[in-house]
Amino acid sequence: MTDFSANDHTTQKAGHEAGMGDYFALLKPRVMSLVVFTALVGLLVAPVPVHPFIGFVAILCIAVGAGASGALNMWWDADIDAVMKRTVGRPIPSGRVAPGEALGIGAALSGFAIVLLGLATNFLAAGLLAFTIFFYLVVYSMWLKRATPQNIVIGGAAGAFPPMIGWAVATGGVSIESLLMFALIFMWTPPHFWALALFVKSDYGRAGVPMLTETHGRDVTRRHVLVYTLLLVPVALGLGLTSIGGPFYMAVAVVMNVWFLKGAYDIWQRDDAACEADKHAVEIKVFKVSLYYLFAHFGALLVEAALRLYGLGGWSW
Questions:
Q1: Which of 225, 252, 289, 290 is most deeply packed, by most CB within 10 A?
Q2: Level-2 CATH architecture, domain 18-173
Q3: Membrane spanning segments where (predicted)?
Q4: Predicted model pTM
C-alpha cells in the first residue's frame, strides 16, 4: 500500500480548514445508522429487559464504535478513496482532514466506546465491539479488501455483529437468535454489495480493488448474486421460527425474499449489452431493494417484540 496519491491530494488542499461536518463525515453516518438500528433491534427483542438509560448508553457506545471504525477505515483507505469517483470527496482525499487526525479520532473513539460499554453493561458486549472494530480495520480493510475478490463475503462479518452486541448487552450471552441475526446480515452483504459493484465497476478497477466484477467478470458476479441470495432465504425464514420470530415477521420475510430473489434472478439473466442499454436499471433497482430488505426484516422483529407485550407476538397464539 502507498499513501502517495492521498497525501499529495491532501497537500494540495491543505488550506481548507475542516469543520464539524467533515469530522462527522469521517464516522460514515449512513453506515452508522444501519449499525445503530440493527443493534437496537438486537437489544429490544432480547428476552431480558434493559433499563432505558443503560440501553441508551449501550447504543451510544455501539454507534461511537461504528463511527470509530469508519474513521480508521478512511485513514487506511485514503489512497483508494482518492481515485474513486464516489469517495474522492471524503474528508481525507479532499484535503479537509489530515490522515493523522482521522487515525487519532478513530483510536480515541474506539477506546472510549469499548471501555464505557464494558463498564455500563458487560464485558462480552464490550469484547464483541472490540472484535468488530478490529475485524473491520485489520481483517477487512488492511487484508481482505485488497487481497481477494471474496473480500465482501468474509468482510461482511464486521457489519453483522451489531445485533449480536445488542443481544449480549441485554442477556450477557449468545444464542441461536443472535447468531441468526448475525447470519442474516452476513449472507445479505455479498448480493447487496455485488449489485452495487455491477454499476460502479469502473471505480473499483481504477482503485485496484479486487472486486469480483474486476477479477472474474460480470457474468460470474451475476451468478454469485443469485447463489448468495438463494443461500440467504433459508436464514431469513429460519430466524422467523425462533423465539423472536412469528407470523408477522414470516409474512414480511416471505414477501421480501420473493422480491429480492426475483431481482437476483433478473440480474442473473442479463448480459452486458442489456446492462449498457438501460444504464444498469435492474442492478440499481435490486441494490435499492436490498436496502429495504434488511430494514424490513429487522423492523418486523421489532413489531413481533411489541406484539409480545400484549400476548400476541410469536407463535404461541
A1: 225
A2: Orthogonal Bundle (1.10)
A3: 31-48, 54-76, 97-117, 123-140, 152-173, 179-200, 225-242, 248-268, 289-310
A4: 0.89
